[in-house]
Protein 1
Amino acid sequence: MGRYIVFGGKKLIGATDIHGSKNAALPILCACLVNSGLNVIHNCPKITDVFNTLEILSKAGCSVKWDKSTVIVDSAKAHFIVLDDEIIGKMRSSIIFLGAFLGRFKKAVIAKPGGCRIGRRPLDIHFEALERMGAVITDNGRCFVCSVEKLKGSEIELRLPSVGATENILLAAAFAEGRTVIKNAAREPEISALAEFMKCIGIETNFDSSGVITVNGTDSFSDGEFRIIADRIEAGTYMSACACAGGEIFLRNAEASQMSEIIDVFVKAGSKVSYCDGGIYMKSSENGISPLNIKTSVYPGFPTDMQPQIMSVLTLAEGTSIIIESVFENRFSHALELNKMGANIEIDSLKATIKGVNALKGAEVNAFDLRAGAGLIAAALSCGEMSVINGSQYVKRGYESIEKSLTDLGAMIRYEE
Ligand code: EPZ
C-alpha cells in the first residue's frame, strides 16, 4: 500500500518514454505457453500485472528471465497446475490462462479472476465460445473446472466485442482442429498485437479491421521473438496530465496511429498535437479547455481506459461537459474523489455531467482502480497545492513508474510506501 504526493501548479515541460502496453503484454505472455518453446518478448513493461503473470508462468514450469526490458519465457517444460494462486484473484487478465491451459493441457482449473472493480465483469462470452469449441466448464463455487477432449475449430459470433473473450478464443483456437472464425471480435490494437504474435509462433491467423478473425489450428509451433506495442493509454494519461497542468511535452515511442480517437479529443479540447517519427508532441491550450461531450466505446471509439483521465481535464473546462461510460457499468469512482478537489461533477447512472471550475484545490483522495488513480494524479498536477493520492497499488498495476515519467515531464510528484 502506498501513495503519491503531488505538488502541482507548474506547467509540464519535457519528454518521457512510453513503455510497452500492459493490455498487449498480458495476453502475449499467456500465449507463450502455446508453443512449448522459447519466446523473446521485447519492450515488456515492468508492472505488477506482468510480474504476477510471469510468476504464474514460472509456477507452471516455464523458465522466465529478464534482460533489461526484454523478458525471455521458455515454455518447453510447462506443466499443468491448478490456477488458484491468490494472484489469480488480483487481476482480470488471469482468465486468459484459461484458453492457453485448455489448448495446451486440455484442462484448466482456475479461480475466479479479480481486477479493477469497475463493473460485474461476467465471463459468459468467454464460456459460451469455449463450450462451442468443445470445452466442458463447471463452477465448483471456488473455481471454474474446464476440460476438453479435442478443441474443434468453430464459427463464433460474439454478442459484444469482448477483449478478454477474443483473447481466450484465439489461444484455444491455436490448438483446435480446423479453422476458427470469430465474428464481432474485439478490434483493439492489443488484439492485433496478439494475432501478430500468434503468427510469429507459427499459427495462421488473419485479423481484419472489420472484426473478423480467422485462426487455423495446428500442432506444430515455432519459437517466437516479438516487440510489445507502445501503451496508448499510458501516452493518453500523460497527455491528460499536460492538459491539466498546461505546458508542452514529447512522448517518445508513442504510436499515434493507434490513438486517433484519443488525439482528436485533446485537439477538440484545445490542445495542439503533432506526431513526428518517434513520438507524439503536445502543447496544451493557451486559451482554456473547451467542454466536450464524450461517449466511451469499443475500439476504434474513445477508450473506456481513458475516461477517468479525460474527466480530470474536463473539470477545468470553460463550460459543461458530458461523459457517457458505455463499456463498464461502474466506472465513475474517481468522480467523488475529484469533487473533493473542488470539481463539480454529477453522476446519474452511466452519465457524468461535469461543470467546469476555474481551479481545483489540493486534497487527500483515494484511487479505487488503476485508471482512476492515474486520472486523480493528472488532476492534482493542475493546482499549486499539495495533494495525496492513496491506492498506488492500483496505479502500479499498469504504469511502470508514473512518478518517474511525470518527473521527466517536470512534475513535482513523489511515491511513498
Ligand atoms: C480489457 O478488459 C482490458 N483489460 C480493460 O483494461 C479494458 O477496459 C477492457 O478490455 C475494455 O477495453 C485487459 O486487457 C487486461 P471486456 P476485459 O471483456 O477483457 C462485458 C485497464 O484499465 N463482458 O472487453 O475484461 C464486461 O462486463 C483495464 O487497463 C461480458 O458481459 O474487457 C464489460 O462491460 C480495465 N461478458 C464489457 O463486456 C463477458 O464474458 C467489456 O469487457 C466478457 C465481458
Protein 2
Amino acid sequence: MIITAPSVLSADFAHLADDLVSVKEAGADWLHFDVMDGQFVPNISMGLPVLKCVRANTDLFLDVHLMIREPQELAAEFCKTGADLVTVHVEAASSVKIHEALKTIRSCGKKCGVVLKPATSPYALREFLPEIDLVLIMTVEPGFGGQSFIYEMTDKIAEVRKMINESNPSCFLEVDGGINAETVKTAVEYGANVIVAGSYFFSAPDRKKAIESLRN
Ligand code: DX5
Ligand code: ZN
C-alpha cells in the first residue's frame, strides 16, 4: 500500500486552513511538515507555532521532517505540539545524539525515523534501523520545494529496501523531493511506500487526481 503525504511547504500560508481541508478532501493519507532552521539547510520554513495551528485544524497524521541541527534538543517539543511521527537527519548531530533524539520521540509515544541527504551512504542508517518506524531518503537536496528528482537515488532506495526487508520489514520507506506522477513510478518500483509531494500536489488543477496519480 502506498501512503501519500502532501508537503505543506508548498501550501498558501495565507490560506492554510483551506489548504488543509483540500489535503483531506483529496484523500491524502498523511501531511508532511518541513521544519528548517537556516543552519542545517540554507532556508527557514516554519516551526512549533505553525505546527500547533496545523494540529488544531486537521486530524491528518502529521509527519514532521526536522531539518535542524541538534534535533535531540527540540524533538520532545515537536511531539508535544502534535507530531505523530518525527524524522531527524543522521547528518544533524553525533550518532549518540541521534539515538537520544529517537529515544525521546519514542518515549513521547510517537513514531520516529531517520533521514538521509542525497550524498549520505545508506549504511549510515544501519545502527538506527532496529529502533525506527521509517527511513526517509531525500531525492533532492533538502531546503527547498520545486526541485528535480535525482534519479541517481534509485540505487540507494533499492539498497535501503533490502536492508529494511532483512531486519525491520514493517519500517516505512519514504521519498521526498521532486515527486510527480512520473518520478513516483521509479521511486515505488525501487521500493518506496511513503510518497511526499509538495509542488506537484499544491499546483495540481485537481488535487484528488494528483493523489490518485501518486498511488498508481
Ligand atoms: C525539501 C522538503 C520537501 C519539499 C518537497 O527540503 O523536505 O518536503 O516540500 O517539495 P517538492 O515535492 O516540491 O520537491
Ligand atoms: Zn520534507
Protein 3
Amino acid sequence: MTRVAMLAGGVGAARFLDGLVRVVEPSDVTAIVNVGDDMEWSGLHISPDLDTVTYTLADLVNPETGWGLRGESRRTLDRLSELGGPDWFMIGDLDLATHLYRTHRLSQGDPLSAITRDFTARLGLECMITPVTDDRLRTVVGTDAGELAFQDYFVRRRASDPVHSLRFDGAESARPAPLVEEALNAADVIVIAPSNPFLSIDPLLSVPGVRELVIANRSKVAAVSPIIGGEAVKGPAADILQSLGHDVSALGVARLYDDLAEVFVLDDADAALASSIESETDMRVIVMPTLMTDVEAKMALASGTLEAARNVP
Ligand code: GDP
Ligand code: CA
C-alpha cells in the first residue's frame, strides 16, 4: 500500500494521475488541485483544473485538447456570441452542466471540496480530488499591459504577454480544504506533478500551511519536470521561466523546487543536466522518459517516480 498525495495543476497533472491510479490503489491517491485559475463566467463558477483532472480520470476528457468533454458541441457558446455575450472562453455544451450545477451548489453554501467529492463519486472515481482551498484564490498576472486576471492573460490574450510578476489574490486568508493537511501528512509519497511551476504549483503553495507541510515532508517528495529539452510540452512555462529571469531548462525548474523535494525526475533528453542539478541542489536526480504519450508511458512514469521517492538512500 502506497498512499500518494499530489500537488496538481491541469493537463500535466491529469496525465500523470491517469497513470498513477493504474499503478497504486486509486483510493490511496489524493490530488490537491489548483484553483488559482478559477473564474466567474456569465455568472457561473468555473474551476478549470478541477474539471480537467476529474474529466481525465473519468475518461470523459476531450483527447484533442486535454480539457473539456469528449464529443461536446459549442452551440450555446455560438448563441451567446450572437447575443453579444462573452465568447472568448470556450465552454462546451456538456461542460456547461458541470458549471450550472457547481454554481447552484455554491450558491446554497456548499463548499467547493464537497461539491467536487460529489462529482467524483457520481463518476465512480475512487481517488480523492480536492481543491487546495474552499476559499477564494485568484492568480493575478503582472504584464506590460498591467495586472491581468488569470484567464484574461491565459485564454483571452493567449498567454502572449511576458510575465513580470505573479500574485495569488486571497492567499493570505485562504485555509487548506479539509483533506489537504491530512493527505500531505499521511502520504508515503508526495508528487509535485509535471505542472506549470508558476501558474499551477505556486498558487497551491501560497495557501498558508501548504508550503510548510510540503517542506516538513520533504524526504518523501518527488517533483517531475514539466520542461523537456528547454521547452514546455504545452503552455507558457518556458516563457515564464525566461521572463522571470530563470534558466529556461529543467535546471531552472529544479532550483525552484530544491527546498520542497528530495527527488527530481528529469527527462532522458535532459540527462546531461543531471550532474549540475545534483551539485547545485540537495535533490537526488532520477532520469527516465517523462513524455506521457500513452497509458503505458504514464504508468511507467508514475511507478518510476514512486519507486525513486521510496528508495531513500
Ligand atoms: P494546465 O493547468 O492545463 O496548464 O496544466 P498543468 O500546469 O498541470 O500542466 C502544464 C504543464 O504540463 C506544462 O508546463 C507542460 O510542459 C507539462 N506537461 C504536459 N504534458 C507533459 C508530459 O507528457 N510530460 C511532462 N514532463 N510534462 C508535461
Ligand atoms: Ca490550469
